[in-house]
Amino acid sequence: MELVGSLVRLMHVLQDLYAETSRPLGLTPQQAHLLCVLLDGPLGMTELSRILSIERSSLTSMVDRLERRSLVARTTDPNDRRACQIALSDAGSDLAHEAHNAFTGRISALTDDLPATHRKQLIAAITGITERS
Amino acid sequence: MELVGSLVRLMHVLQDLYAETSRPLGLTPQQAHLLCVLLDGPLGMTELSRILSIERSSLTSMVDRLERRSLVARTTDPNDRRACQIALSDAGSDLAHEAHNAFTGRISALTDDLPATHRKQLIAAITGITERS
DNA sequence: TATTGTTATACTCTATAACTATA
DNA sequence: TATAGTTATAGAGTATAACAATA
C-alpha cells in the first residue's frame, strides 16, 4: 500500500514546514494552530480543546501563556457564568494572519505547479479522506 | 487557494490518527516515528536527528528514555569511536512493526474506497509535493 | 579545526486526577 | 448530577549553549 507511505511522508513534511514557519514568528506550531483557529471568532475552552484535540487542562496552560503575551484574552460568557470565551487580541490577530499567510505561502510553493485539473482532483481526494476521519 | 486548507486539515487529521494509534501501544507519536525509522536499520545520532528533524540534544533524551525501556540499544561504531549506532531491540522491533501495521490499517481505512486510478494520481501528486520540500 | 554525541538548563506540550463554581 | 474551567503533578518533547572525546 504505497499510498499510506506517501500520506505519512506528506504529514511529516507539512509538520516540519509548519514548525519552521511558526518559529521565526515566535510561536510553537501548537500556538500558531490555536491562534489560527481563533481567526474564525472567539471560542470557549471546551470547544477549542475539541478542535485542537487536546485536554482542557492542557489548553488552560496554553491559553495562560498566550494571555501572558497579550495575544489572546479570556472574556466572560454572559449566558453561562462558568464559561469563558477566548478571543484574539489585536496583536494576536495580526500575528495569526501573519502565520496563516506564511503557511499558505510555503505550502503554495510546493503545489503551485500542479495543473488546475490535478489540483481539483487532489482537493476532492483529500477532502474525501478528511471527512471520513 | 483551497488546496492549502485541505492539506493543513489532512495534516491535522493524520497527526491525530497517529497520536491515537501510538497511545494504546504505550508510545508517543515521536517515539513511534523514531522506532519506525529504525526498522530500516541502525542509525547514528546525527543521521537520526536529521531524519526526525530534531536537534541532537533532543534526540539524546528520547533515546535515553527508549533505551531505559529496552526498546533500542546504543552500540559503538567500530569505525569512529566518537559515534554510536542506535538499533532496535527485539522488543523494539516487535513494537515498531506493531505500530507500523496499526498506522497502515488506520490510514488504509480512510483511503480504501478510492478507485485504483484515483489512488495512482493521488500518490503521484503527493510524491510531487514531498519531493519539493 | 571540525564532528559526534552528551550535559545542563529552561520552556512548552500533554495527560490524569482532583477540585471549584455554576447549570 | 452534569458541565465549564482550573489546579496540581508528572512526564515527555524541544532548543540553546557549553562541553568532552575523537577525527
In short:
Chain A has helices at residues 2-22, 29-38, 45-52, 56-68, 90-111, 116-131; strands at 43-44, 72-76, 84-88. Chain A is mainly alpha-helical and 133 residues long. Chains A and B meet through α1, α5 and α6 of A and α1, α5 and α6 of B.
List the helices and strands and how they pair.
2 copies of one chain form a homodimer.
Chain A: H1 2-22, H2 29-38, E1 43-44, H3 45-52, H4 56-68, E2 72-76, E3 84-88, H5 90-111, H6 116-131
Helix pairs in contact in A: 1-5, 2-5, 3-4
The structure holds a DNA duplex (23 and 23 nucleotides).
Account of the protein in words:
Two copies of one chain form a homodimer. Chain A has six helices and three strands. Chain A has helices at 2-22, 29-38, 45-52, 56-68, 90-111, 116-131, and strands at residues 43-44, 72-76, 84-88. Chain A is mostly helical and 133 residues long. Chain A starts with a helix and ends with a helix. Chain A has a domain at 30-101: Winged helix-like DNA-binding domain superfamily/Winged helix DNA-binding domain (Arc Repressor Mutant, subunit A), CATH 1.10.10. The longest helix of chain A has 22 residues, at 90-111. A three-stranded antiparallel β-sheet of chain A has the order 1-3-2. The A-B interface holds A 1-4, 6-19, 33, 53, 103-104, 107-111, 113-114, 118-119, 121-123, 125-130, 132-133 and B 1-4, 6-19, 33, 53, 103-104, 107-111, 114, 118-119, 121-123, 125-130, 132-133. The structure holds a DNA duplex (23 and 23 nucleotides). Chains A, B: This is HTH marR-type domain-containing protein. Chains A, B: Keywords: DNA-binding, Transcription, Transcription regulation. Chains A, B: InterPro entries: HTH_MarR-typ, MarR/SlyA-like, Tscrpt_reg_MarR-type_CS, WH-like_DNA-bd_sf, WH_DNA-bd_sf. Chains A, B: Pfam families: MarR. Chains A, B: Residues 1-131 form the HTH marR-type domain.
